[in-house]
């Protein structure tokens, strides 16, 4: 069952629904496939580190670092979805991100959740 059967949205529907909740209203969990995750580590380049250091002295958004973190989170989530799809899931419940510093050289982002097969009730 693909998520095209779910309806309710505009445009193409993803084949793996990712939610932060324990369940999806109107659906039941047919099968729990287990934990899935997507992990990536990104280093900051020297220019953005210098810019961030200067910006932190005067205040304001660190746009270069924000852009890098958004790209990193997206990549981690894409890897999570790939892993869920490979296991036959059409949903991921209890989706979360974990972000940590990796030995002062970059940022580690892990997207994780529980891969499931969902069916309409």
TrEMBL record:
Which Gene3D superfamilies does this chain map to?
Hypothetical protein apc22750. Chain B
What residue ranges carry the coiled-coil annotation? none
Signal peptide start-end? none
Q: The organism sits in which domain of life? A: Bacteria
Q: Which InterPro entries match?
A: UPF0145_dom_sf, UPF0145_YbjQ-like
Against Pfam families, the record matches this protein to: YbjQ_1
Family, per the entry? Belongs to the UPF0145 family.
Name assigned to this protein? UPF0145 protein B446_20655
